[in-house]
Every structure is written in C-alpha cells, then in structure tokens.
Amino acid sequence: METLMTAPAVIHHLQFASLPNGMRLHYASAGEPGKPLILFVHGFPEFWYAWERQLAEFGQTHFAVAPDLRGFNLSGKPAEVEAYRPKHVAEDLVQLIRTLGYSRCVIVAHDWGGAVCWNLAMQHPELVERLVIVNAPHPYLFARALTADPAQQAASAYMNWLRKPGSEQALAANDFALIEKMLSGGDGPRPAWFTDGVRSRYHAAWSAPGEDGSHSLTGSVNYYRATPMRPPTDSEPAADLSRFNPADAVVRVPTLVIWGEQDRALPKTLVEGLSDFVPDLRVERIPEGTHWVIHEQPERVNLLIRSALP
C-alpha cells in the first residue's frame, strides 16, 4: 500500500462542542466537515494531542476529530466519581458524533478510549462503520483476566493505587515525575517521541484545573475510581462476572485490533479469545511495540488504520 504524498492536513484546536447532556467537550480537527468522519479517542494520561500524527494524515481524506474526553485537558471535569463510568463517557461520544452532524463514523481508540469505545460499539453499532482499537482489551476478557489470572492482577495492580485518595497529587509531584515514568515504561530513559516540545504540551494538559477548582488530574484518575474492573484486594473482590452476559458483549462492527506486544500492563494474552466476541475481527500485532505504539510507530499505525477504512 502506498502512503499519501500530499501535505499534512492543518490541525485546528480550541474548538468546543456543547452536548445535549450538558457536557462541554474540547476537540481538535483536521480536514473538511462533510467528509467522512473519523474519530480518534485517547486514553490515560493523554489528551487530543496524542493523535497529532493521525489528524495530520487522515485530515487529508476525512474530517478527522480528536476530542479530549471528559475529565481531561480542556473538556468539562465533573466532580462526581460516578460521572466517569464508561456509559457516561460513551454517551458523550455518541452526542459528539451527532452534534457534528454525522450518523456514522470510523472510530480509532487507545487505552481508556478503547475501553469506552468497545462499549460504544456494543451499544450503538449503527453509529460505528469501522472500529480500530489500539492496546485496549475487550471489557469482558479484561474482567475475566482480572478475576482469574494472577499475572494480569499483578500487571494491573497500579489500578488500585490510582483509586486511592491523593493519587492525583502523587502523580503531579516533582513536575509530574510519576506520569512521565508511566510513559517511559518504568525507570528507563525518556522515550524518543516524548520530546521537550511534546513534554511541554502534556504538562500544560496535566495542569488544566477543573471548573470547580478541583485538582487538574482528579477527573482523569476518576476513571479508575469509577470502574468496577480492578484487581481484587483483601477488602474489595474483583468484578462479579456472573452479573455479565457474554452475549451482551458481542461487537457487531468490523474491527481491527492493533497490539504492541511489549505492553507491560496489558499483555498480548488479552487478545486471546477475542474472536468469540468480535465476529468480524482482524488483529495486527507489533512485536516490538509497547503500550505507546501510536507514538513509537505512527507511520506503521497509520498504514494499518488506513487499511481498515471502508
């Protein structure tokens, strides 16, 4: 497949959508409204700029939009933990798609964005023309692993730490040292993609306070506090799988899953059994990629995304 040899699309940000549910989402876009919509959905601890290379590429052929999820950067940051349950975040995206004037789109999502968009595709398959997921496990498979797989429980132990009061202050301490450690995969050097310019953008996003004066990271950390999915502890059991009907977790949308196989928190074993829940599935593995493969290999990721487009 040949790459497009045209100039990168111009990216416009500081755009806001006021949704019917009262949420105000900030988004960046590239390309012309009216062209097919492709929605890029970030995860933790990122924001719309995670998709800068994708907006520049796909804005050439599509109306490419990357919102800040609620709780992140310049979007609304509700105070209540309950407001960050995946169903509410998914509803933001449903309303954003419609507010932008579309009834169908392609969705590309990473990490927490993927968790939200798996749910969106289950509940609203009519809105999703194609689904592209990058290093984000299917919710049922993830819940099962958290319940029964000691290796996954150990890899996800950080989730229980993030749920604790004060985790946002700890993340922000020493000029966001702990968050930067997440991006580097531990004690390694700063990744090549996390340049000084990118770092300054991320620090600005991590510093944007809530409307009520709440800590800048409280909204994003509340995703972990709101989810029932977490490793079990002595005081809190894992999610009760008997409450979930696997038939309700089927995704009836053509789906591409891209997986960086060096992901320490979300190992490649989470892809096993995925075809049971996604009948129209293609999996592309990037053996040397980490959780941050969209940054490490943007051209390769873009080629894979383009290969999945209708």
Largest sheet: spatial strand order: 1-2-4-3-5-6-7-8
CATH class: Alpha Beta
Rg measurement, Å: 18 Å
Give the terminus-to-terminus CA distance.
15 Å
Shape: globular
Note the main sheet. 8 strands, mixed
Secondary-structure arrangement, i.e. CATH architecture: 3-Layer(aba) Sandwich
Stretches with pLDDT under 50, minimum 5 residues: none
Fraction of residues in β-strands: 15-25%
N to C succession of SSEs: EEEHEHEHEHHHHHHEEHH
Annotation, overall tally of beta strands: 8
Kindly state the percentage of residues in helix.
25-40%
What is the CATH superfamily?
A: Alpha/Beta hydrolase fold, catalytic domain
Class by SSE composition: alpha/beta
Look at the structure and give the mean pLDDT.
Answer: 95
CATH topology: Rossmann fold
Number of domains: 1
User: Total number of helical segments?
Assistant: 11
